[in-house]
User: Which sequence fits this backbone?
């Protein structure tokens, strides 16, 4: 992993912080009804500390209390993200 990426086992973002996230083998369905996909390893997500403590899951207890909130339908369970980095400064 190149410089700047922080392992989720090393340190986590602040609660509510939007960051770049690395998701190995993150398959995204492309627009249209063709079923076509592409792999997008880097996405912007917002870290939700203790999400499942504050919002108990109706489908069973996840392995980790934290969650990554996406935009649209791109939410991810905590374990899916292996690394993150702060968003770059505005130009």
Assistant:
């Amino acid at each position: 992993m190149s410089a700047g990426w922080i392992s989720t086992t090393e340190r986590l973002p602040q609660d509510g912080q939007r960051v770049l996230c690395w998701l190995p083998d993150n398959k995204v369905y492309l627009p249209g009804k063709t079923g076509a996909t592409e792999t997008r390893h880097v996405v912007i997500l917002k870290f939700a500390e203790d999400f499942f403590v504050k919002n108990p899951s109706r489908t069973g207890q996840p392995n980790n209390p934290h969650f990554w909130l996406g935009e649209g339908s791109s939410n991810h369970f905590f374990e899916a993200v292996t690394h993150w980095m702060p968003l770059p400064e505005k130009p």
In short: The longest helix spans residues 51-54.
